[in-house]
TrEMBL record:
<dbReference type="InterPro" id="IPR015424">
    <property type="entry name" value="PyrdxlP-dep_Trfase"/>
</dbReference>
<dbReference type="GO" id="GO:0016829">
    <property type="term" value="F:lyase activity"/>
</dbReference>
<dbReference type="InterPro" id="IPR001597">
    <property type="entry name" value="ArAA_b-elim_lyase/Thr_aldolase"/>
</dbReference>
<keyword id="KW-0456">Lyase</keyword>
<dbReference type="InterPro" id="IPR015422">
    <property type="entry name" value="PyrdxlP-dep_Trfase_small"/>
</dbReference>
<protein>
    <submittedName>
        <fullName>Beta-eliminating lyase-related protein</fullName>
    </submittedName>
</protein>
<comment type="similarity">
    <text>Belongs to the threonine aldolase family.</text>
</comment>
<feature type="domain" description="Aromatic amino acid beta-eliminating lyase/threonine aldolase">
    <location>
        <begin position="69"/>
        <end position="298"/>
    </location>
</feature>
<keyword id="KW-0663">Pyridoxal phosphate</keyword>
<dbReference type="InterPro" id="IPR015421">
    <property type="entry name" value="PyrdxlP-dep_Trfase_major"/>
</dbReference>
<dbReference type="Pfam" id="PF01212">
    <property type="entry name" value="Beta_elim_lyase"/>
</dbReference>
Length: 395
């Protein structure tokens, strides 16, 4: 581990200070070796050029641009419905809006405004209590363990609920998934209670590998499914809500009421179509290689005598997983930035303090994408050694 004096070069390099944020982004964008490239790694000009190049490959650019959801936006909706095997799909500017609309529709249809979901699910962690504040919904938690609920927990939950929402994978628990058989059993248990099932499938695209099933078979378990276009497939923004034709038609009405009927959305639609073409065929390879990366990290931490660490889950269920270390988030992020600046290698990006506020513990999310397929296990171990050299020694 590096001497504590190394920290003086990063004085003020903490939190969300704008200068520090730009330094982070610059270091990671200019790095030659990364496990995955993210939109922030490209300048505005590069993103515009990419969008222009992609447009001609996914749609007829001689046709008029979209107006209030027709043209290329409608093409995207049809593509998603086809991929998921549903009757219809509707484009939404955000996944937060898509899911609020879906859950509101189900509350009206079931006559029950209670939604059962995990306390680590996105609406509970990242939406500022929007389900209750905006949509008048009430949430209950069948389990607080860092995994999806079991069939027994759903069946024996003491309170009634109209909708069971399952986030696949459960991001804040480490992108964890049940087995296919466990998922089938949980859905069946909800059906026994006359509850409908909604999948938060922001990252559903990469779940097929672990489940050993195609997207239509996975989506068929639920009454509605939300998917994201910027998570996993590299789009600009946007989401889709898929399900029966009647549900999607009702959702379009509520989308307008929530302010989601935008005048033009062709940049997001083009980027989404291009991302589906480019990334969907490669996701199984990313998922497989994530296991190699995670195993090499665990071996490297052990060889370095780091002490306590956690790769969660091990092995990963998708192409994303968490790494936990007993250090502050700021000092680990600073070490990542220094490694990128000094060696051109990015193993980890930003580190975070858990919401529980646990002192001296931080985690980061690791994503394996196209760029990561070039990394061997030895590359990972060497990069980890370089990272740990830049982490201040304790004591």
């Amino acid at each position: 581990m590096a001497d504590t004096n190394a920290q003086v070069t990063d004085e003020g390099a903490a939190g969300d200070d704008e200068a520090w944020r730009l330094r982070r982004l610059t270091a990671w964008r200019q790095a030659g070796r990364v496990l995955s490239r993210i939109p922030q790694d490209r300048s505005l000009g590069e993103q515009l050029a990419s969008l222009t190049a992609d447009a001609a490959t996914v749609t007829d650019i001689a046709l008029p641009a979209d107006i209030y959801g027709d043209a290329v936006v409608a093409e995207l909706e049809q593509r998603v419905a086809g991929l998921l095997g549903t009757e219809a799909a509707a484009f939404f500017p955000t996944g937060t809006m898509a899911q609020q609309v879906a859950l509101r529709c189900w509350a009206a249809r079931t006559g029950d405004s209670t939604v059962a979901l995990h306390p680590l699910a996105h609406p509970e962690m990242h939406e500022g209590g929007a389900l209750g504040a905006v949509s008048g919904l009430r949430t209950v938690h069948p389990t607080s363990d860092p995994r999806l609920p079991t069939a027994e927990e759903i069946r024996d939950f003491p309170e009634p609920f109209g909708t069971l929402m399952l986030e696949l994978p459960l991001r804040d628990a480490g992108f964890v998934l049940p087995t296919w058989e466990e998922l089938e059993a949980v859905v069946a248990a909800a059906r026994e209670r006359d509850a409908v099932v909604h999948f938060d499938g922001a990252r559903l695209w990469e779940c097929a590998t672990r489940f050993g099933r195609g997207l239509p078979e996975i989506a068929a378990l639920a009454d509605s499914v939300y998917v994201s276009f910027y998570k996993s497939v590299g789009g600009i923004s946007g989401a889709a809500l898929a399900g029966s034709a009647s549900l999607v038609e009702e959702a379009r009405v509520w989308r307008h009421r929530y302010g989601g009927r935008l005048f033009q959305q062709f940049p997001a639609a083009v980027a989404a179509l291009a991302g589906l073409d480019r990334e969907l065929p490669n996701l199984p390879a990313y998922v497989a290689h994530a296991k190699t990366v995670a195993a090499a990290l665990a071996e490297g931490f052990t060889q370095a005598g780091t002490g306590w660490f956690r790769v969660q889950p091990e092995p990963p269920h998708t192409h994303q997983f968490q790494v936990w270390l007993p250090y502050g988030a700021d000092e680990l992020t600073a070490a990542s930035v220094r490694q990128a600046e000094e060696t051109g290698v990015v193993l980890f990006r930003r580190w975070f303090t858990p919401d529980t506020g646990a002192p001296g513990v931080a985690f980061t999310e690791v994503t394996v994408g196209q760029a990561g397929l070039e990394w061997t296990a030895d590359d990972v171990r060497k990069a980890l050694a370089g990272f740990l050299e830049r982490v201040p020694r304790k004591g």
